Known about the structure:
Order of helices and strands: HHHH
Number of helices: 4
Low-confidence stretches: none
Largest sheet: none
Structural class: mainly alpha
Strand content: under 5%
Mean pLDDT: 91
Shape: elongated
Amino acid sequence: ILSFFSIGKINPLFGYFGLVILIVGFLLRQYSIYVLGRFFLPVVKKLENHEIVQKGLYKHIRHPSYTGLFLELIGAAFSFANLISIIIVLIFFVPAILYRINIEEEFLLKNFEEYEFYKEKTWKLIPFIF
């Protein structure tokens, strides 16, 4: 509807950029889920023989799966070549992802002594930035 009425319309080249970012995000998220294996769960809980995964991207980033999800959402928003869709993602979805990360990190700090050290040597979502 927004595109039909030219509301928030931006350069269509951003649409192609968005598709590339979406694909990169999808691949990153799938790889992260693969590396976590059985520790990837939709709920925050401790499994038997649970350990902090520190291989693959998890050597450098604590939440690469969420980095991938963030890229997927931003990529999808840009693929519409519409400023409104980008703003919606930034206002509604980014805070939801950050909220979930905070819940997970509180849980991990409470349940794993080594998580504090892991936290100190890794980035949360984006290397060299955050």
